TrEMBL record:
Designated name of the protein: Pre-mRNA-splicing factor SYF1
Top-level taxon of the source organism: Eukaryota
Upper taxonomic lineage: Eukaryota, Metazoa, Ecdysozoa, Arthropoda, Hexapoda
An annotated GO cellular component: Prp19 complex
Domain Pre-mRNA-splicing factor Syf1/CRNKL1-like C-terminal HAT-repeats, residue spans: 386-770
Residue spans of biased composition, Basic and acidic residues class: 796-806
Gene3D superfamilies: Tetratricopeptide repeat domain
UniProt keyword list: mRNA processing, mRNA splicing, Nucleus, Repeat, Spliceosome
Length: 852
């Protein structure tokens, strides 16, 4: 009965009315995968058993179809998903996989799915064997698809030995994945093997890290690994490995030395670790490496001391050996801290043994220890190469000798100086400094004759003359032209020598053509002190022949001053010749004091006419910025000698040549002078003339001064004329500003569009342009800032003799409103000085000149 029911169920699942078309197609095309898949897709909602039977029927007909097997195995895995791994259905699926592999053993996806499925079932041995079967069955080109799953499987379970063997097999195929193996070994605590593998890849120059690590980073990892785990790493020679890294990676010496010392510390070999630290701080060459090693060394000593103190404190009765050991550790720590600066200096000297300044610092560190200082100086002068020296090499020899001098060992100091003069310095000045210091030492010890002998010996001419700047010659051969040496020689001769010997020294300096203006001046003063005035003047003349302007200025100034002081006006013609010779090629920058000195000579001992001529020449010779001062002096002297009327011509010339701002000031002074003399018309003409360069918006003080002048000395007509001129000048400046603004705007418009296209902030830009144009007008109104005085003449013939009637009559009562008005309809014209006023002024000047 049960058999009959199962048969009916089978017939119900397989043979329904809807299945008949598919069955008929299968009967007609039993080897068509397409028809089988269509039938299976139709039956996917049927019971699992029916779908499985349909897959089995299809695979019986088509056992080599990958598509059928893949879909069947996927369907069977989905059917057992979520079930307990002990369910019998899992085994049925495993059998299905095994049956599929009879035909699909070259398909990596089937193997991958099978291995993954077995991994989830936690069947370790069976899974491992299936992985091995997969690797044997598949070609090697497909192994890269199996290994990641295999490695994941062995890392998932605690099977270290199996995992290690699997990883070793894997590295034979993919040695570039050694870092993955190292990570696993570190995880499971197999640090010895991890260090071995890491050492191999570090030594392999062709190894390329998949994690992007450089060989240097791998070295650091290896050092960290072997130094921090000395009890677990036994197969490698840690000392040799780290020292190999020290030779290979010189930019990480501090870190590698610390790793090596840390290895011995963790191994319990504290004395050996201390030796490593000492070796490190004696060999590193950079401050960074030294700082790393020294900090680690200090920390090690501090921890060692602290631990020992803690151990002793726990003892009930510490022994004498414990106290000695504690004091020894404390002394080591204190000694290390005291040596820090000295050790750092040693690092810098190893970095550059030719650094003179560091040698000086080393000597300072040994203060109070004479033997160490002498050894340091000796080592320094033997080590530093003159051609590679950084700093002043001669300072080492000088300080070395001074050290002996301070200790009263003069002979030793002289010996050091003598050796210092034999060194092949790069510059002659260095050798000269050594000789000078030697002589100064003799002076300090009151050995004056020895100092003079030294200078004489140093300045002896060589057998053949060589150029001072010829670097191919030794500095000893070029020393005879050292100005520094000769200057000190001259000073010593002045102080301790005779007049004849000192004069000979100065003459040799001049003959060698190494003298400076100061040397010439010193020579002249020396001769004057001994009352050899003419010899002094000849010395000055030699200096003048040696130098050109501007270097000769000081010599000329001293020469002329001394000559005038000596002879005054007794040798006037000779003094004049000297001044003329001096001023012949004198630059304008130095002309002012010389011309004033010349003029003073003429005033005191010569003729007033000549003095005025000198002042006249000075106004043309000095720079523009000094002209105003010269004209002031000229005017003052002319007023003192010839009287005030004589200054009119000077004022007129000053107004012609001075810059615009100084011209205004000179015009005001000129007008003030005329006013004091009662020449009101002359003063008014000067005001009118100056007004042409005075913008009413800028030079308010000028117009206020003119207004006060008219109030005191003028009338209604003159006030009206002043206001008319003011409006005319203001209109002239406004017109020029508008024209320049328009030009600037047109040029700007050609680049950025028309004025109408300007942005809303263009009004501010217009104001800025107008202000800028106003500044430019100030510099262009008078074509260079100079106003020329011309004689007043009738310009228009008889037509101009008719009186011009101004239809716009000005009311004097409205003076304030008219001054504040900007836009006035007044013709723009250049205001000229009235001919009847200025012509009379000129005629009166001529009459007064005749009187004088």
């Amino acid at each position: 009965m049960s058999t009959q029911n199962s048969t009916e169920e089978y017939m119900e699942i397989i043979f329904t009315d809807d299945d008949l078309p598919y069955e008929e197609e299968i009967l007609r095309n039993p080897y068509s995968v397409k028809h089988w898949l269509r039938y299976i897709d139709f039956k996917k909602k049927a019971p699992k058993h029916g779908v499985n039977i349909l897959y089995e029927r299809a695979l019986k007909e088509l056992p080599g179809s990958y598509k059928l097997w893949y879909n069947y195995l996927r369907t069977r895995r989905q059917q057992v998903k979520g079930r307990c791994i002990t369910d019998p259905l899992y085994e049925e699926v495993n059998n299905a996989f095994e049956r599929s592999l009879i035909f699909m053993h070259k398909m990596p996806r089937i193997w991958m799915d099978y291995c993954t499925f077995l991994t989830d079932q936690c069947k370790i041995t069976r899974t491992r064997r299936v992985f091995d079967r997969a690797l044997r069955a598949l070609p090697i080109t497909q192994h890269h698809r199996i290994w990641p799953i295999y490695l994941s499987f062995v890392k998932k379970h605690d099977i270290q030995e199996t995992a290690l063997r699997v990883f070793r097999r894997y590295l034979k195929l993919c040695p570039e994945n050694a870092e993955q193996y190292i990570e696993y070994l570190a995880e499971v605590g197999r640090l010895d093997e991890a260090a071995i593998v890491l050492g191999k890849i570090v030594n392999d120059e062709n190894f390329v890290s998949l994690h992007g690590k450089s060989n240097h980073q791998l070295w650091n990892e290896l050092c960290e690994l072997i130094s921090k785990n000395p009890d677990k790493v036994h197969s490698l020679n840690v000392d040799a490995i780290i020292r190999g890294g020290l030779r290979r990676y010189t930019d990480q010496l501090g870190h590698l030395w610390n790793c090596l010392a840390d290895y011995y510390v963790r191994s319990g070999l504290f004395d050996r670790a201390r030796d490593i630290y000492e070796e490190a701080i004696q060999t590193v060459t950079t401050v960074r490496d030294f700082t790393q090693v020294f900090d680690a060394y200090a920390q090690f000593e501090e921890l060692s001391l602290g631990k020992r103190m803690e151990e002793i404190s726990k003892l009930a009765t510490p022994t004498e050996d414990d106290d000695i050991d504690l004091e020894l550790r404390l002394a080591r720590f204190e000694n290390l801290m005291e040596r820090r600066l000295l050790l750092l200096n040693s690092v810098l000297l190893r970095q550059n043994p030719h650094n003179v300044q560091e040698w000086h610092k080393r000597v300072m560190l040994y203060e109070g220890k004479p033997h160490e200082i002498i050894n340091t100086y000796t080592e320094a002068v033997q080590t530093v190469d003159p051609k590679l020296a950084v700093g002043k090499l001669h300072s080492l020899w000088v300080e070395f000798a001074k050290f002996y001098e301070k200790n009263g060992q003069i002979e030793d100091a002289r010996l050091i100086f003598k050796k210092g003069t034999e060194v092949q310095y790069v510059k002659v000045d260095d050798l000269a400094t050594v000789w000078c210091e030697w002589a100064e030492m003799e002076i300090r010890n009151e050995c004056y004759d020895e100092a003079l002998k030294l200078m004489h010996k140093a300045t002896v001419l060589p057998s053949r003359k060589v150029a001072y700047h010829d670097d191919t010659e030794t500095v000893q051969a070029r020393l005879y032209k050292s100005l520094k040496l000769w200057s000190m020689y001259a000073d010593l001769e002045e102080s301790f020598g005779t007049f004849k010997s000192c004069k000979a020294v100065y003459d040799r300096i001049i003959d060698l053509k190494i003298a400076t203006p100061q040397i010439i001046i010193n020579y002249g003063m020396f001769l004057e002190e001994h009352n050899y005035f003419e010899e002094a003047f000849r010395a000055y003349e030699k200096g003048i022949s040696l130098f050109k302007w501007p270097n000769v200025y000081d010599i000329w100034n001293t020469y002329l001053t001394k000559f005038l002081k000596r002879y005054g006006g007794s040798k006037l013609e000779r003094a004049r010749d000297l001044f003329e010779q001096c001023l012949e090629n004198c630059p304008s920058k130095f002309a002012k004091p010389l011309y004033l000195l010349y003029a003073k000579l003429e005033e005191e001992h010569g003729m007033a006419r000549h003095a005025m001529a000198v002042y006249e020449r000075a106004t043309n010779a000095v720079p523009t910025e000094e002209m105003f001062d010269i004209f002031n002096i000229y005017i003052k002297k002319a007023a003192e000698i010839y009287g005030i009327p004589k200054t009119r011509q000077i004022y007129e010339k000053a107004i012609e040549v001075l810059p615009e701002d100084k011209t205004r000031e000179m015009c005001l002074r000129f007008a003030e002078m005329e006013t004091k003399l009662g020449e009101i018309d002359r003063a008014r003409a000067i005001y009118a003339h100056c007004s042409q360069i005075c913008d009413p918006r800028v030079t308010i003080e000028f117009w206020q001064t003119w207004k006060e002048f008219e109030v005191r000395h003028g009338n209604e007509d003159t006030m009206r004329e002043m206001l008319r001129i003011k409006r005319s000048v203001q209109a002239m400046y406004n017109t020029q500003v508008n024209m320049m603004s328009a030009q600037m705007l047109s040029s700007a418009g050609s680049m950025s569009g028309t004025v109408a296209d300007l942005a809303p902030g263009a009004k501010d830009d217009m104001r800025m342009l107008e202000a800028k144009a106003a500044e430019m007008v100030g510099t262009t109104a008078s074509k260079g800032g100079n106003i020329m005085f011309v004689r007043g003449e009738t310009q228009g013939g008889k037509d101009n003799e008719d009186k011009v009637v101004n239809p716009d009559e000005i009311n004097i009562d409205d003076e304030e409103e008219e001054e504040e008005t900007d836009d006035v309809d007044v013709p723009v014209e250049k205001q000229s000085i009235p001919s009847e006023v200025f012509g009379g002024l000129k005629k009166k000047n001529d009459d007064e000149e005749d009187d004088v």
